[in-house]
User: What shape does this take?
Amino acid sequence: MTTPAERRHLRQLDATHPHIPWDRLLFSAKESLYKACSPLIPRTLHFDDAELSFTPDTHTFTALLPLPLPRLTGRWHAGHGILITAVAVPPHP
Assistant: This one.
């Protein structure tokens, strides 16, 4: 479900922010992303179709995707045993 770049990124995050369950947060973020994008992409997305990276200081994540949406940004929160992720897809002109 992860790309090699995501695995490296998660190891770095875990070293600097070990209190966050980054693997579960990644899964949640990809689920949010795919649910938001599925009406816009003409094929089924797989977990390795998007590559995510997290920014802990801003509680955001960036997703690189196949066409037609090359890059999206989402938000996340982790606390009290709860993980929340969200993505909003901007309208296309």
